Amino acid sequence: MSARTTSFASAAPHLIPRRGFLRIGALGLGGLTLPNLLRAEAAAGVRSPHKSVILIYLVGGPPHQDMFDLKPNAPKEIAGPWKPIPTNVNGIQICEALPHLAKIMDKLVVVRSLVGNQADHDAIQVYNGFDPKKPTPAGGWPQFGSAVAKLQGPADPAVPPFVSLCYTCTHGPYNEPGPGFLGPALTPFRAMGPTRDDMILRGVTVNQLADRKSLLKKFDDMRRDRDSSGDLKAMDSFTEQAFGLLTSSRMAEALDLSKEPLRVVERYGTGDPKVFMDANGAPRVPQSLLMARRLIEAGARVVTLNYSKWDWHGGMNAEGRANNSIFLREQEDFPPFDKCVSALVEDLHDRGLDKDCTVIVMGEFGRTPKISAQVGRDHWPAVNCALMAGGGMKTGQVIGSTDRIAGEAASRPVTFGELFATLYHNLGIDADKATLADLTGRPQYLVEGSAQPIKELI
Questions:
Q1: For this UniProt entry, which segments traverse the membrane (predicted)?
Q2: How far apart are CA 80 and CA 56, in angstroms?
Q3: Domains, the chain, ranges and CATH?
């Protein structure tokens, strides 16, 4: 990226928040607004297709044995009340509360034997595939989207390669870990909240914007040789994104769900983004999945989002009766989840995006086979479950199996390295060869060990 940011004599560059660099007013360009200008390219024509990934994090760890790995013949204290139902793929059954997904199982892959999970509420492994308890390079491992942005760059100069739709959770470890040793220039573009209000030009024409961009470059050239922190390099990328966003309508259009037919929005469902589930989780916002699809169509390579809160340990009221049963919460959360995920997968197929866009849905660990006295399921790192779709993969199958109580992998254990190697493969990146330079200049591989893509899927 060739554009340069401005520097301020009165403030150290690293103290200026990233949002300030998206806000052209903070760049000395006057007020920032985006109305009619960004709609000018709405009909920009058909772009060449690009490979992409939508990563959906189920905050807190969903119960695998109540969703995609039911054990109806296990004792009641393990099996729970849900019954399995057949899907449209012979021999595959899932929870009766997921009927929409059952109807499109031929378009899905269930990984029932994901091993090597962490035991704590920490989203880092979901976002980068590395065990947080193992040694990490200085600066930390970059999350998946940051690595992809570094290796492949933008598919469209006006759309960031990595966009985050994640809401900030009050429990810090639930949040995205960031770009790690790749540095702040590879931080995801955060499209939610106040940032969207900054994507607006007020009283500045495109030509004026170009002139001021040139002026910024001249100012910054004077300070370039003095910077040794890397902050200006990061600011370069932020400013380039800001100028690109302001001179193209694609991002604004992608984030505007009013452009979608009402029937499509209703198919996904909607939720209140201001209601954070159980206070410290993420909001239950099905429309985020629709927005992710729109961002992929606009040109993003990786879109991440967090969805609801799945940490259901149960609880008792004053009379000693269960009042926060895991199964009551499942009755509440399963239907909208079933609806929005199936809508996304069907939408990708209907739009011809199923060969190019990979969808992956997972949490940080599985859940205990035995239902607790508080009518909940606790943390269970021994085995986990993931749902995948698209990406040109061989769908309509289950990878791996667990024992009779869904407590351990019984066949074909799948590692996080294999899972992420598959995601990279679907993007056209060979995780066995590609490397990223860490802070010392040492090349680091993208996945743990020498993991290969899941052979059953490619």
A1: none
A2: 26
A3: 1-32+192-254 (no CATH), 56-183+267-445 (3.40.720)
